[in-house]
Amino acid sequence: MPPDQLLVPSRETPDALTAFRAMLRGASWLHGAVAFVSQRGVDLLAGVLEEVGTPTVKVVVRGAPITDPQAVLELDARLGAEVRVVLGERAPGFHPKLWVSQTEETTWVLSGSGNLTAGGLHANDEQFELLRFPRAHRSTRVQADAHMTRWKRFYDRGLPLADAIRTDAWTAWEAQWAERETLQARARELDRELAIADATIGAPARGDGSAAVEQSTIRSWMERWYTDSEREVVWELLAEVMAAAHAHRPSGWVASATRKSKHDGLPRLQVFCGLSQVFVASQRGVVFEAPHQYVDPSGYAAAMTLLQKVPEARHEPWAAGDDHPCVVVPAVHAAAARESGLQAVRAAIDWRSPKRGRAAHAQFHSPALVHAVVKATGRELDQPSYHPWRG
Predict the structure, then answer these.
(1) Which of 109-123, 186-200, 349-363 has the lowest mean pLDDT?
(2) Which among 253, 254, 246 is positioned nearest to 381, based on CA atoms?
(3) Of 291, 267, 277, 271, which is closest to residue 347 (Cα–Cα)?
(4) Fold annotation for 4-175
(5) Secondary structure (H, E, C), the chain
(6) pLDDT digits (tens, 9 = 90+) for 90-149
């Protein structure tokens, strides 16, 4: 009979960390073969083992970058694991991600793309299969034993930890670690820059995973533009504007993440109503739009209050002759601008939102921006009614 197969991620098992909890309850042992190990990965696995009870652990790991040598030592010191290390010429090609555990009734196998790192266990978009082999059936015992044989071949390639740390390869690895960490930090910075430069922002969703890239890019922009306290305020402002726009007319607004604005050539996050931006967040700060005085005196007055009372606030019209208030506020003063700014924007939404049909530029709506705001604020926000991806 075939084993039970659970897909990871899935609703029941969203990540490898959840899979570990399932396969370790009542387990007498856990065997692993994994390429990369980080301190955070060891911490997370240790936390699961503390929750469910600590089985006997055997694990073989790659003894070369990206693995942290101190994390390998922690596998022994903290988990009491029997550790083996693949060093030297074979290390760069050692790349498995295989875990096997056994309870009285079941052998579990977790195999996939993620390493023993925070990213591999739950933060990255990884894929695994979690297989469950009942021990009561001979056919599934035979299949489970085949996975154990595979793991044993990996395990036999490593040196016991006590022997590994006496080798020249281990000494060189530890000596290089600080320098390699500096290089890896720079590589991660380049990766973030590449994600920003290469992401397709504000284009129609293609269903090919680009939404995940968009969300990552949006969060990266916010982290680069603002301090923690500023970022919290700007996320909340985005949420308030989206909620107000949707409440006014569910089909009349667009959220957009633009890589290169025609106004200043910089990335920006914005909310459109009709043809106009009513709110913008960028590295220059936040922008609140308001209507002309003859359209809505109270909204206009709110914008004038910003210009008079918020430090460094300034009026920057979108274009020559378009002189309704567009107030730019540095992010450091965004909290002070919140009340009057939102009053101005709500008036602008009423002014700009189309009275019928869907918003102009609807094809450029970024559902990823709405989802990023939801994740950052914990609020419930709707997508525009014309967009099939709700919530």
Answers:
(1) 186-200
(2) 246
(3) 291
(4) Endonuclease; Chain A (3.30.870)
(5) CCCEEEEECCCCCCCHHHHHHHHHCCCCEEEEEECCECHHHHHHHHHHHHHHCCCEEEEEEECCCCCCHHHHHHHHHCCCCEEEEECHHHCCCCCCEEEEEECCCEEEEEEECCCECHHHHHHCCCCEEEEEEECCCHHHHHHHHHHHHHHHHHHHCCEEHHHHCCCHHHHHHHHHHHHHHHHHHHHHHHHHHHHHHHCCCCCCCCCCCHHHHHHHHHHHHHHHHCCHHHHHHHHHHHHHHHHHHHHHCCCCEEEEEECCCCCCCCCEEEEEECCEEEEEEECCEEEEECCCCCCCHHHHHHHHHHHHHCCCCEECCCCCCCCCCEEEECHHHHHHHHHHHHHHHHHHHHHHCCCCCCCCCHHHCCHHHHHHHHHHHCCCCCCCCCCCCCC
(6) 999 999 999 999 999 999 999 999 999 988 998 888 999 999 999 888 888 899 899 999
Question: How many CA atoms lie less than 13 Å away from 4 in the CB half-sphere?
Answer: 10
Q: How far is CA 218 from CA 87, 123, 382, in A?
A: 39, 16, 18
* 133 class by beta-carbon count within 10 Å (0-12 exposed, 13-18 middle, 19+ buried): buried
The predicted pLDDT at position 192 comes to: 57
Residue 243 has which token pair? Answer: 């909620």
Backbone angles phi, psi at 262, to 5 degrees: -70, -15
What single letter denotes the amino acid at residue 272?
A: F
Task: Read off the pTM.
Answer: 0.53
Dist. CA 37–CA 67, nearest whole Å? 5
Handedness of CA 60, 163, 77, 80 (dihedral sign): positive
End-to-end CA distance of the chain: 41
Start and end residues for every CATH 3.30.870.10 domain found in the chain: 4-175
